[in-house]
Amino acid sequence: MIPRIVAALAGLAGLALAACSTAPQEANPALWQVVDTKGNVGWLFGTIHSAEHPLAWRTDKVGAALDKAGTIMVEVGNLANDAEVAATFAELARSRNEPPLSERIPAKNHKALAALLAKSGHEDGDFAAMDTWAAALTIARAGADDADTRNGVDRAVIAAAGNRPVVELEGAARQLGIFDALPEREQRDLLAAVVVEAAQPDHDLSASWRKGDMAAIERETRTGMLADPELREALFTGRNRDWTTKIARSIRSGARPFVAVGAAHMAGEQGLAAMLATQGFTVTRIE
């Protein structure tokens, strides 16, 4: 199992696999209603960024909330523009004279790295012109098996926005910039986490998401690279705090936001639902 946030961002880098043509899988994903003290309302919808099969995600309650929403809030608004996102990735990823990947991680991970490189079709020295974080995202694609970002629910929600505004919580440049700003030590921890988790038996996160099993999803956020305190702060907790501020402002303004972000960001005491509750909102899971 590769880190799920890495799998999602590998898709941002324009690395999606070929789309599947199978029938959509039924889903009952998690949905929360958020209300402020004046009765202004918004919704939190936990998405999945990639999946092997198309997903029937629009339940009656999700559809009703989406229809009532005045604004759609997502992590990145231009997910369908692969060329633009890939260009952003290429610009941020550029480096030179970097060492082989095997020199950027502990020797104990070399065997797993060799297996992942072979699977991805790359050589150890192919990343001399790429930052370590970008190399990690690139080879993470190989660990994603048949998951496809074009089956991601984020894209479907954006497509359902119609004429309503789509507001980015981050945007591709800022989201990828979080990785680019990591100290080299943390970038190498990220690379090692990708390598280690790719060598482990895969957990079907999509099954947990389809059942709305937030306890299972929360457990996922405590493993892999998100178990590293510095990476967790940069990639999970810090982002959630920033998003909470923006979501709270949108709800209080009466914009009726439908917030569709990765379900992991809803999980646990450091998730968006809990953070909004601490700010005085009434947060109720309704699906």
From TrEMBL:
Top-level taxon: Bacteria
Signal peptide coordinates: 1-18
Keywords: Signal
Pfam families referenced in this protein's UniProt entry, alphabetically: TraB_PrgY_gumN
Signal found in the keyword field: yes
Key word Cell membrane present: no
Family matches, as PANTHER family: CYTOPLASMIC PROTEIN (PTHR40590:SF1), CYTOPLASMIC PROTEIN-RELATED (PTHR40590)
Protein name: Polysaccharide biosynthesis protein GumN
Lineage: Bacteria, Pseudomonadati, Pseudomonadota, Alphaproteobacteria, Sphingomonadales
